[in-house]
Amino acid sequence: MPGIVDLSDIAAEIDGVAKVVLESVQEMLLKVALQMAHDD
Asked: Which superkingdom is the protein from (predicted)?
């Protein structure tokens, strides 16, 4: 989807808490985008 930031490349290079945070942020952004598409 256009406008969605893919953080998986960055998350693959790091470990620990930062990886969990980046994966969670990416999941949240996807949910927000899906909700916006649903509302439209």
From this structure: Bacteria
pLDDT digits (tens, 9 = 90+) for 2-40: 566 677 777 778 888 988 888 888 889 889 989 999 998
Q: Are 23 and 10 within 8 A, CB to CB?
A: no
Decide if 29 contacts 11 (C-beta within 8 A): no
**Distance separating alpha carbons of residues 23 and 5, to the nearest angstrom:** 11
CA separation for the pair 40, 10 (Å, rounded): 31
How far is the CA of 3 from the CAs of 6, 13, 22, 25, 30, in angstroms?
9, 22, 17, 15, 10
